[in-house]
Design goal:
This protein has helices at about 10-30, 90-105, 125-135, 145-150, 180-190, 195-200; strands spanning about 45, 80-85, 110-115, 140, 160-165, 170-175. It is α/β, with parallel strands linked by helices and about 200 residues long. The chain has a 6-stranded mixed sheet with strand order 1-4-3-2-5-6. A hairpin with a 4-residue loop joins strand 5 (about 160-165) and strand 6 (about 170-175).
Length: about 200
Amino acid sequence: MSGKNSFLTPFRLRLLLSLAIGVAIGLAFGLSQKPPSSAPDPHFHSQIPRQALITDRQNRLNLEWMPFLDRPLEAKTPVLLSFWATWCYPCLAELPEINALARDFQDLGLRVILVNIDPSEDLEPARKTAASSTPDIPFLWDKDFRFSQELQVGQLPYHILMTGDGRAYARWFGGVNWQAPAMRNSIKSFLEKPEALAASLQ
């Protein structure tokens, strides 16, 4: 492949296709966002650091670098990473449910982190959307798709339930009904013994 066309990797082609579909659906539904307060978002972190990428042979993620969290992640801390974009209608539709999930399972230790992959340099729409729909959840910006590509995110929404030391328990893509009893029971089972369940999948 020549250097001129190297940008169009299979991952980026899938992402561009998802972008086109998301924009079309968004226009069809006539999405509108209520402008929230313009106050700075204390949960926002501008970019995924390099040390977050998978580096060891066990395919674990390094989540210890997240300095903006109100308390550090421990190895047994259950974490839900949710990848989303403002052009993805299913992503926008489920954000309030994800916020409710984070609130409902907070006492069981669940930490939810949103990962935005909007390609635009203007993050204001993403920040406004997150502040309005998920005010209790911090979010990151995967500026150059390194994090998403490392995790093989090919469709949005995309979610990974894992332990704080990066061991994955479950992955979902496409719209998810976070209020369904079966889904909530599955997550609750993981929250009650995250290390054992994640280790069983290694």
